[in-house]
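[step 3/7] fold_predict: job queued, chain A
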Amino acid sequence: MPARSQPAVSLRESALQRRLPPHQVMDQPTLTWIAANRPAEAARTVAVPDPPIPLLPEPGWFAREQAVDGIHGVRHNARVYLLADLLARYYGLHDEQRAALRLAAAVHDCRRHNDQTDPEHGQRAAHWLARHHQAVTASFHMSLPAGAVTAACAAISLHNIDYTAFSAAQRKAYARAPRLTDLLKAADCLDRYRLPLDRWWPDLARLRVDVPAWMYGIAFDLMLASEQARLDGAGHHQALTHARHTISHLR
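[step 4/7] structure written:
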């Protein structure tokens, strides 16, 4: 696959000018800037032996065709899946919880209408998964009981809502899947290094779980490797396979 053409104005420049477009795709100048500004918390990193194979959502699951290759598209959802699974291992989730978290992570942003705030996208994705979970789990070769799917939908519906902004109904939904919600939020937060301003990068104050220090470096390297591979012409699957290999051989 040939490398993609670059936009006239980078995401970094657009963000500095407060003129980010509705649909945003990584470009080389922005990724080069990110790589050159590795944050202190991501300095410590370790190799991950046998990292999970990321699940890639199918392009047809996205609400907008432009979203597939964007900053909330296939690669983002796949990385959040991988990061969520590492957090599930760290916190010792049992198999059913771990599978529900994997499912939620792999499709949490698939119904976005744009790459801006889009405050309803979590709720849309939850409703979509509730209607299509049989096809999705079959595609992922998963078998989950109804309760686990319900928990995954609850976590998705809340993943983009600040805890302090929960409505009464959202607090009830959170009570049904608190650990899944907390870990999905944490995994999603860890992939924020792809954003073009460092003030938008991971913010610990927004989380309710402790993230091990080594995971920040893993998240940074995973993003960097997969986005660079994509810019170099790799397909989504190849880019994530390359990134998975990268984090398993870190020094």
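[step 5/7] annotate
The chain is about 50% helix and 0% strand.
The mean pLDDT is 95.
exit 0
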